[in-house]
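Known limitations

Files may contain more than one protein. Parsers should not assume a single record per file. Below, a two-record file is shown to illustrate correct handling: read the sequence, read the token line, then continue until end of file.
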Amino acid sequence: MISLYHLLVSVVLGIVQGITEWLPVSSKTQIILVSEYLLHLNFQQAYAFGLFMEIGTVLAAVIYFRKEVLALIRALLGRGTKSEWVLFKYVVIATIVTGIVAVPLYVYVDTLAGGYNIGLPMIILGLVLFADAAVVWYSRSRYANDRKRRTLDSLSIREYVFVGIAQGLAALPGVSRSGATTSTMLVLNVEAKEAFRLSFLVGIFATAAAVFVTLIFSHAEVAVGFADIGAAGLAVAIVVATVISLLLIDFLLKVAQKSKIVYLIIALGALALASGILIFVFKLPFAAG
């Protein structure tokens, strides 16, 4: 039987995960903070638990992008169309590169004993998003109806690699996966809605792999968080994260296809920058206690 306190903690964890996974503020960082203060986990435990919590957002993305997931399965079975094969190639290459970059970073971070301030990566990401907003604004003011902006079909394998590298760097606390990949594609002049869609879609496989890696390298730390919140608490957190994620994905993609996308990117940049400055100024590295 789950206690009222653990029920509330579970709901809070689910809300935090469901919102921050899709915003440029690093969901695992926010889960680490919540886990440390509410569950009293140390850095390694909170970091591992934060990655494990992403199960809910993976489920939400699979549900929301079920048509694309089915298209990937058809391509894998050799029955896909040309566009489905392009999507399959993008996901596979970006995910492989992500793993090559992310696994060593995860192992490194898992050995830290404190002193890592997550504010700086968030500040950098905020500034990059401001630059992205300027690029989008300039492109749209120069090219009517965004005709010159790109889609997946026009991206090269080298650019798939860039996306994979950006996503791999999100293994570092303070680096937002969705923020890093979306920013990279906006810099590559990808149309805004397409950039968000491709970022969210490729994140399904990278995030699922991150959960698997977490269980391999940090099963003891995950067990501590699991024992504290319990199976029922974890289930509640995952369900809440899934529902919140579905709502936010839909909202962001709808805004991304409208003319006000520049304001959304600026708002996301401001959010990342403000969060990074607060954390950097107040010096919130995580002690491994």
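...continuing to the second record:
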Amino acid sequence: MKNSIYSTAAGMLTSLARLDISTNNLVNISTTGYKSDISFEQTLRNLSGGPFPGKDQPVLGGNVIDMKNGIIQTTGRDLDMAFEGPGFFTVQGPGGQELYTRNGEFDLNSKKELVNAEGYYILDKFDKKITVLGEKFQFAPSGELFIDGAYFTTLKIVDIPNRDHLEKIGGTFFKLKDYAPQPQPIETPQIAVGALEKSNADLLMEAANLTGAQRTFDAQKATADVILNSLRKVITEIPRPI
């Protein structure tokens, strides 16, 4: 009976983690450039001194980032950009940390510096922040910036094909893990100017995942209640030897 409690507890923890992942995906269903998480399960073996002694236990193995492209939505705004293929914009995060994002919703601050909604600087291929001065400016699908008809600079656009090298920071930012190689620049990116990439989270799928995880948790809790009640009955009602 002890093993039944461990198995049920492991299942409940797995369901709670799945609920958290699906809830977070649903919360970010309207977040530009958001990449959803996918959970996967593994079997925790009966190792000496492990957290779940007894039989093999199903637990949540973790989650991976779903990097499939979201739908491109036209905005007509000059500072909105979306990737039609692979690629990440490079921004300067807190403390000068280099971060990567698919969210191309940019703006100009009071100093005419190109920033995102969080105020992080958008970097060019020379790792410099971009100051947009002049009467007219225009971004090309290649990431090149033209000011008053003359070439000025090019956005730093990189490719990180291995999603295992990425770690999520907040809703739409990523950083490289310590062991990951440096990302490679994309010389000819495919950028839709005047458009944004919507979240790739699927509303119907996430709602179904949320409902399934909740029902599984409820069933596991009911099982745990039966086991605990049985144990309580054994302890309180079976006569002890004199």
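Parsers that stop after the first record will miss the second one. For reference, the second record is described as follows. Residues 2-68+201-237 form one domain.
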